[in-house]
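Form 7-S
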Amino acid sequence: MRKFIISIAEEKFEVEVEEVYPDRAYTSSKVNGAKNGESKLNVKEPLTRHKTGSITIDSPMPGNIVRILVNPGDEVSKGQKLFVLESMKMENEIGAPSAGCVAEVKVNVGDAVAAGQNIMVLE
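Output:
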């Protein structure tokens, strides 16, 4: 468990962070030591590589699809923005983990998605 101090709007919070998944960037945390302030993110890795060579891009968090920036058949480069996901009033641009071709887009603008839900497939 590591302790950090975070400043938000000139107010300081002491935060304890515990590593839950050592190979991922997701953690659980306690804010100001309060047990009911504990938050455990149970989200899936945002991509899955398949034996066929395709890669599924999953939603890293729950939210709403604000924009889809690519179409099936588009060639994309590594890091190119694929879609914009609004979560907790913040827009998150999700990029391609590798170069490829967009095989399938499984959501529409305005759709609510869950953490780990499949958004698109790259080949």
